[in-house]
Design brief:
34% strand; 253 residues; globular; alpha+beta; Thiol Ester Dehydrase, Chain A
Length: 253
């Protein structure tokens, strides 16, 4: 099965009618925008990180910081644009033993949904980086919006690619965060480079990144790109010794 067929099988959990929700408003700024004025995906994912952290601190979770991203799925229905105000609303869409899926909707201020996002966050020990069970106080806060939905941490984009071309991806000091690894949002800069090459995808897009092994400072990252069509692109980020992430960009069904 190809990356694309697996990616399109993922089901975005609908927004429930009741439970805990957290909302905030952001304005798309100059540093968030493409040359054409579109909210870039790396900036969007930074918004998702921020609202996630704001929510967990507002809910007074016992451990609001010990979470790392395993997977992010984005459905882009309509682009947000430079200087537009958007509302981000987030809730828990499902639970596993050591992880939780956070759903976020990005809406225009009139309520129109522009973007749906589902991010799988794994609860970890910040010292050992090993997975920990989801704390009971978190379950107590979020169980209503999950509606009993269980989620898996298994990878969607399994398998290998047959690259049609390969590029080396230079790393910068600003790509790394306080965990000492390449930040989750920095991976999405690769997707922006791809969208400049495959602009047809932008009009009704699904994009997925799955993180396999962290990228440490000094790693020489190679991006393997397999173009099936102008609207179906599979990507592997790897170094000589490790697979770091898999990515797929394509048109939604």
């Amino acid at each position: 099965m190809t990356f694309g067929s697996r990616a399109l099988e993922f089901e975005m959990a609908p927004k429930p009618d009741a439970g805990r929700f957290f909302s905030t408003v952001r304005r798309v700024r100059l540093g968030d925008s493409s040359p054409g004025g579109r909210l870039r995906l790396d900036a969007l994912v930074q918004y998702l990180q921020d609202v996630s952290n704001d929510d967990s601190r507002d809910a007074q979770w016992s451990d609001p910081h010990g979470w790392v991203v395993r997977r992010t799925v984005l459905d882009i229905y309509e682009v947000a644009e430079y200087l537009q105000e958007v509302q981000l609303t987030t809730w828990c869409g499902g639970l596993g033993s050591h992880w939780a899926e956070r759903r976020t909707q990005v809406c225009a201020l009139d309520g129109k949904v522009l973007i749906d996002a589902a991010t799988l966050w794994v609860h970890i020990d910040m010292q050992t980086m090993k997975p920990l069970v989801v704390p009971q106080d978190v379950i107590d806060v979020v169980h209503e919006t999950t509606q009993g939905r269980s989620v898996s941490s298994r990878l969607i984009l399994k398998g290998t690619t047959s690259p049609t071309h390969v590029i080396e991806w230079p790393l910068r000091f600003t790509d790394f965060d306080t965990l000492g690894h390449m930040n989750n949002a920095a991976y999405w800069q690769v997707s922006e480079e791809l969208l400049s090459m495959y602009p047809e995808i932008r009009r009704n897009m699904r994009a997925i990144i799955e993180h396999v092994n962290p990228v440490d400072p000094g790693t020489i990252v190679q991006v393997d790109i397999e173009e099936k069509t102008q609207t179906d692109v599979s990507v592997v980020l790897r170094s000589d010794s490790q697979l770091h992430a898999t990515m797929w960009l394509g048109l939604r069904r």
